Queue: 4 jobs
Job 1
Amino acid sequence: MQGDDTVYEQGVIDGRFRVITHLMTVGATPIFPDRTSLAYRAYQMIIVVSAYLTFITAVIGILKNFHDEGFVMEAARTTFTMINVLWTHFFTSRNMQGVRNLVRMAREWSELAGRVADKKKDAWISRIQIVAWRGSGFFYCIHIIYLVLRIVSQSNNILFYNSWIPFETETNFGYYFILVVQALGSILYACLVFAIMTLFASLLLVVCSELEMLQGILMEMKQNEGEPQSAVKESLAQWVKHHQQILRYLKELEDTFNVVLLGPLLSVAVILCLTAYTAVTISGNFVEIIQICLITSAMLSQLQIFCYFGNELTIQVLNETYTYFMFLLNFSNNSSEHK
């Protein structure tokens, strides 16, 4: 499998999924990992352990400071955001073979001669990767600015997240150790909060692209009414065969991402409620307002991805169904006339 993954990885990096592949690699969740790189494996372990330690200490911090409403509300916003990301990381990692199969199949379809140029939806795959890359970079930069503002406006030894610390942070060593752990964990959060959702959207767009191509083939077959029926039947058989491949692709997509997307959908609802509550209760704390705006925008972006690209798939399926029905009706009428 190692050689197979390496070959496909090179193809993916050169193709439509290059940016998302790099983003997930930086986020310690590579689609096609380089099993020969000990340095990357060490990097991956450090990032993942830091992210989960940051989450655990944040939960303990909430439980130990439950009497402090301000501390709990601020910590809860970030903690549920961590749940959102860590859920997708955990279940995507468990179902990574399914993700690889989907990316490979999309790549194989794109390499078939004369197929890419006619697909309008392919352009969206490139655009959404740029959005994911810029969104993750913006998310992390604002995260750094938020920490600086906390340090400037409040007191010393301010961390990225409110959390429980198992030892004193009064010393420089203890403070910088925790700060580095949270900063490394934030790399995973910043990358995956957009990467996995945009990967899912890109895979949906692959389906839309293929359905759009099939719709175009049907329209061409309908216009070429002078062709012999044997040629039309052969073309239709190829059309049905590819449509069955798309159905298998959709089944693989559903099996791979159904659990992955459950956590984000539930956590988005909780996070939006928390941010709405704290937005109307805080008074003049501009640092918290920055965090609320950052988290709210990230969660609404995820929700927009679900709704918009899911709607695009629904529209494309309806269009193809209508075109197929009209083709069969026209084909049936032509067959009756030749009898």
Job 2
Amino acid sequence: MFIRIHEFSYGQIKQLVERKDDYRLRLLYRFEMAIIIIYIIRVMAIMLMLKWPDLFPIYRYDYFSDFIWRYHDIYNEFLLFILILVLLIIVVGLHTFYLCDKQTLAFQILYDIMVINFEHYQNCLIKDPIIIKNAIELRRQNYLQKRMTIKKTIIPLFIYSRYCWLKAWFDSWFEMESFRLNRSMFIRNPMKLFSKAPVRARVYLVLFMIIQDGLNFILHLIAMFLSIYVISNLIKEFSEHYIESVGTWFIVILDLIVLLNGTMNLLQSGLLTIFAASTSSLVYCLCFNNLNRKFYSLIRNIGEKEYFPHFSLWQLQFICSEHNRLTGFIICTDRLKWSMALCQFLMVGIPMNVCFMCILIFGHPSQSEKQIYIFITVLHAFSSILPTASLAHIYNYIEHIRKYISRSIPYLGHLRLKLKYEQLYGHLMYDNLYCFTFGYIGPVTYTTLSQALTAYILIFILVTNFYLKNFHI
């Protein structure tokens, strides 16, 4: 569990990469994994107890099993199966981000875009609030003067004034005004793998990092409050009906600590999945979009029966090599890391989300239980939809260059460069797709996501039918 929640995305990736050889962290991660596996075995034993109580009378020795046994009409095998799926999601998250090799290209890319670029931006900041305030106010006055030239408008002046202030703040931020940022220093890109990334893309990355750290902080607070609320209710319930000895209380406290740690691990695994995938997809989309715009600007200036000038050939060479390099990053990181990780999240996550939806729609949970189910369901839905949709969007930007290649090849007088573009066009047309994949399931495209949605609906129908026949009261 990462403690510095106010800078979770940046701090977590920084810790994972820079402290990859710290044996204490590895020991901590392995200890957490062992505890989760032990609890999976424990829950499976309780399921056996509910099925065959005479053969497995665990309720005589374990207070948690006794609690489940007394209220087995509420906490049935279906809820225990959901608990196993939640624990398996935590196992997948720990294995994907923590118990793995941090020297791979996948983590080096995350370190490049989420740590090095963000730290360089912070080093280039000019922190003088008076200068910043005066400069933004000057911009706002300029925007207001443009509005005064319009004689008739339906927007009140005080509302438009606030809009102008927000517009001045964002414009000064995106355009890297000299009063806010040392522009000449920021342009010197320290990233190793994305050294050719455009400046605007790097600014967008920083803005996205700031937004996601704020969201992470809020979600961590919500998860902590929910965990404390659940723990306090459990302590109250156990103290009134079950626990009498000090030894049992000691075991209960340990279980509650594990519950809090498991909740935070579940949350942090989901957030890492969301923001690692979305940040990676953002930088790829911005870089590919920049290459496509450059390519289009070169083609637009070429007339009929003309060849590209010598200077344009250098730009075309850069576009081709950069396109191949970025797609190489995608293919390499997908095969080494993200392909099987996405497949595991999908195979465990879809049944878990379906089961939670069945409980929320057809079950009768209490108000506190309903809040917990809704929080986990929404978190998992976002941690599934946002990463996959953002990764699927990369494929659209990669394929967008294909129509420009078909239009530009007749105007390429340089034979070697023409062969390179013909080879790239052939790969885009006939080879495997340049995109991330769901392991053996297929590529991460919008077509595959629509098929996954259809599979989700079918699984929901089957699970709902099974739940209503066996567990619905």
Job 3
Amino acid sequence: MVTTDAKNPFLRMLAYIPYAFVNIRAVYVVFVCWRKCRWWFRFQQRASVILSCHSRPDSLSRQMRQWQRRSVVAGIGSFLAVLAFEVADWLRWFDQDPRHWDMSYTNALEPLPIWYPVWLYIVIWNVFCAFSYFLSQQLYISLVLYGCISKALLSDIKTNLRAESKEFNSDKMSSPLKCVAGTADADYTSLYERIKKSKMRYMDILTFSHDLNHTYGNALFVIYGMDLITVCGFVAAVVANEERFLSAYLANAISVVVFGAYLCCLIPMVGAYEETVKVNFALHKLMEQLQSVFGAFAYQKEGLESYVAHFITLIRDQPVVFSGAELFHVTRSFLAGTITFVISSAIVLREVMQRTEDNHQVLATCNPVNTTAALLASAANSSWLTDFCTNSNHTAI
């Protein structure tokens, strides 16, 4: 749906890449959803169980409604994004050739030997390309929402651990009443059970994220890779700037914004990893409090500290992180590297375009035919040639 006469073949190839990779992405993700649909229902059930087990009964129904509303809003947002991209791109395609506005025109796909009227081509494209891409976005949105759920549950664990650190401090345990062994035993047992519960919650979230990576990690890799290549392709179209009409500018700008937003949807998954780091920090603070609180009860201190130390080691070695086919992990540095790569690609493509234009100007200047024509034109506009012709005429007379 894009035509460009870019002088650089590399930029021309990048201008056509987005449409191919958008459709490949859609077909592959829809195929993965169909192939692993039974696993998808299991993940939905497990997410509901995790929310029900790790939420307070009075707030469970409210949280479930919130996540349902967020999923609906995300689905509507993805539909509007696909609609904006398709409408802008169709307007560009119509403006490329005024004959495309005629719905009965049958040579819209020239030079291909396909004789479909314009209206049928629009229907086929929207049904098999645009709609399949919208369906593939639903898997991506679901993965992002699972990242949001993991982040929220990890944030709850972090809040509980921070509350434990504030409750069990040296000031509270320094009172004479707390020096009674029975009272210390009760505090120790209660704290041990709460930390054990937090560890069990973390293990549930960790197991869920690992299973999700194992089942849909390849799909996440394809989604990220195809969207990144698509963004680079539309950036190349913006840099080449071969289609000099308003709808082309609008379509390129909307395409870069839409697919750039798709890449930024990984931020909730980054948030899950960031919350894991904060949970680890909260455990370290709790360890310091335990060393001061239970210092007088060495036999209790050793057991509780070893359990907390094992919890810290677990988080350090097995963080909650989403990955794409085990080739990349969705972290803050990874997302920053993606943004840097897109910006660097725009700068490099702009430099390639500028050098290509300079080379064409040099070749045009060095061409003998163009050089002779330029000299004749310059001579025709100069005053000495006019004076020479006038003097020659007077001499002849």
Job 4
Amino acid sequence: MTGKKEAGPEAGEPSRAAGVCVLVVLGGVVVGVLFAVDEAVGVLAVVGVGWVALYCSARRMPGLSAPPPPPPGTTVLAGETGEIARVQKGPGEGMTILYPVREETPEE
């Protein structure tokens, strides 16, 4: 023992793992109380929390409508040509969206 203090979180800074443990214990106590009140209430609560967790995780997933990334080895240049591929009315009054012609060139 050399008496050196190991590098770690400061004494005043709570760890993230401790917070998770506290939340898990509190959740277990709540579920236990619900099952003690009535078994059907406990089952409905667990199923309801599961559906909410599934819904929240599904909303965080990226949409399938997002355009795929360009193929490897190509660069998309769209600002230097000066040619417009199409014009679209925007959502606001007087707003217009211009889509330039894209040129794909291989990377060197």
